Amino acid sequence: MAEPRVGKSLKARPINIVDFVFELNKDSNGQVEFGHRSFSPEQVYCQLFEKVPWPRPIPRPEKITFEWDYCSEVQGRCFAGQKLIQVSCLYKDRMLNWELYLLITHQAAHFIWDSHTIRFRRFLESVGIPYFYRDRVGNASALYRMMHKQFFKPRYTWQCPTCRKMAYSDELSDTSCRRCSRQKSSYASKMKLVESLPPVSERLRAVFGQSEIVDCPVPPTPCPLFENGQRCGNP
Fold first, then answer.
1. CA-CA distance, 60 to 49, in Å (whole number)?
2. pLDDT, greater one: 49 or 138
3. Do residues 84 and 64 touch, judged by C-beta distance below 8 A?
4. What are phi and psi of 196, to 5 degrees?
5. Distance between CA 232 and CA 135 in Å, rounded?
6. What single DSSP character describes residue 14?
7. Which domains does the chain have, with CATH numbers?
8. What is the mean pLDDT of residues 132-161?
9. For 57, which of 5, 91, 152, 216 could close a Cys bridge (C-beta 3.0–4.6 Å)?
10. In DSSP terms, which residues pair with 88 in a beta bridge?
């Protein structure tokens, strides 16, 4: 007889994920201090499995495989048939790490809904997931967007020797400055390569591949949910 998938029913006590994380990150003075605790995807899923009132059963934690993603630009992906959840390695950053609770709630909900239907989004809203984690990938927090911009820069930076205009690409190929090519010779308008970066996967593994928690040199970014150590809203 096949083992049933166990999960919490809608009769379970309601939970607000953000309030739950808020309590987890309080310091000894009762102030929110992100970064003094770290969480793994496995740990987060176990807690969410027990505490969230899932409308239908989801797989037990021991049935789920988690993988850190060092290649894709997406925040996370759920492969329901394989019971696999991939998570962007950017969430290893100490200040971004707590957002795993928001991301994995979203991904675990895909064991119930394949797509981002109205019911999917309403359920996430009902458990306190803010708007930037309810919809499809891309609508992330300000800190995630800043980190994404830093680590997913185009590989090649070009500059026009005449007008100093900059251009960016992921392919190494000759290119010309459109502005100067109308007035100058083809040689004068040819862009010069000024910076070449390793592939994204190499950049990410160099920073995130050696540790479970990383302190990235990213400027502090305000969170719309917290201000001065206090809860200030739930967008």
1. 7
2. 49
3. yes
4. -130, 120
5. 22
6. P
7. 17-149+206-231 (3.30.2010.10), 154-196 (no CATH)
8. 85
9. 5
10. 69
> CB atoms < 10 A from the CB of 165, how many?
14
Angle between helices 100-109 and 41-51 (to 10 degrees): 60
Hey, what are 81's tokens? 């048939």
In sequence order, what are the beta bridge partners of 226? Answer: 231
Question: What is the tally of helices (H) and strands (E) in the chain?
Answer: 7, 8
What is the rounded CA–CA span in Å between residue 213 and residue 218?
14
Of the ranges 79-93, 98-112, 181-195, 202-216, which one carries the lowest mean pLDDT score?
Answer: 181-195
Gap between the Cα atoms of 59 and 61, Å rounded: 6
The C-alpha atoms of residue 188 and residue 179 are separated, in whole angstroms, by: 11
Question: How confident is the model over 29-49, as pLDDT tens digits?
Answer: 777 777 778 899 999 999 999
Q: In angstroms, rounded to a whole number, what is the distance separating the alpha carbons of residues 46 and 56? A: 16
Q: Please state the pTM of the whole predicted model.
A: 0.81
Query: Which segments of 160-209 are extended strands (E)?
Result: 166-169, 192-196
The candidate with the shortest Cα–Cα distance to 204, out of 76, 65, 108, 93, is 93
169-172: Cβ within 8 A, 24+ apart: 172/196
